[in-house]
Amino acid sequence: MTSEFARSAVLPHLEARRSCQQNTCYRPHAHDALSVGLVEEGASVFTAPSGDAVQLHVGDVVVIAAGQVHQCNPRSGPWRYQMVHVDQDWAAAQAARTGAGSLLAGVTVLRDARAHQRFREWSELLFSPRPVEDADSIESGFRSLARALAEAAPAHTVAGGVDPVVLERVRPVLERLRDDETNPRLDELGRLVGLSRFQLVRAVKSATGLAPLAWRQDQRVTRARHLLRQGTSVADAAHALGFADQSHFHRVFRAHVAATPSTYRG
């Protein structure tokens, strides 16, 4: 398993990744950013919370809106891919100038040579030997990619969105899960919103795509990524997020990111 990351000081929210995996490496997870990926080698299976599974092939470009729970793992043999994460609002502002706004919801898979080429050009810019400090070049590259994505016919789409009524009902539970350093019991969480533990699990999964404790872990990993990108040490990040020890933090982080905290931090 190998992973390489690139970031830019002028757009701190932007993160690019090149990775090669061979075994199942990702648990269901979500990003707090728009994600655009490209399959470079091998085949993989993209799975959405609905259970919909899409076979991805070499050249496929995948657009995943922020907050969409998913997992993608190699089907067999080596799987090499690239992924870029950017702030959803920033992407929406750029895409509004190209007509690609419809791609910023749910999940879209495209099989289009031009989209493939525009992604590669943008990724090469982000991974260029010199530090990428030119925001105009980054924005221009993304707009070229967004235009190509908007003009391509989707090969697959997976609708996004959550039930806003259910989300509001379980919001106190999500706040407790996010802020409490302990592992609250399900029956205790259920009492916060008048649900049994079984009703609670179904409601949280309907609202977020993940069961309560899985959602909590995913949120912790998202916060860990922000801390590590800011230069926080692995030990301090583990402590700040309430992990019992660094080895536990390492296992959870790697299961969500397919890279160790040290590799991710750089």
TrEMBL record:
One Gene Ontology MF term: sequence-specific DNA binding
InterPro entries (alphabetical): AraC-bd (IPR003313), AraC_XylS_family_regulators (IPR050204), Homeodomain-like_sf (IPR009057), HTH-like (IPR037923), HTH_AraC (IPR018060), HTH_AraC-typ_CS (IPR018062), RmlC-like_jellyroll (IPR014710), Tscrpt_reg_AraC-type_HTH (IPR020449)
Annotated HTH araC/xylS-type domain residues: 168-266
Keyword list, A-Z: Activator, DNA-binding, Transcription, Transcription regulation
SMART domains named among the record's database cross-references: HTH_ARAC
The keyword Ion transport belongs to this UniProt entry's keyword annotation: no
Coiled-coil spans in chain: none
SUPFAM superfamilies: Homeodomain-like, Regulatory protein AraC
Name of the protein: AraC family transcriptional regulator
Gene source species: Quadrisphaera setariae
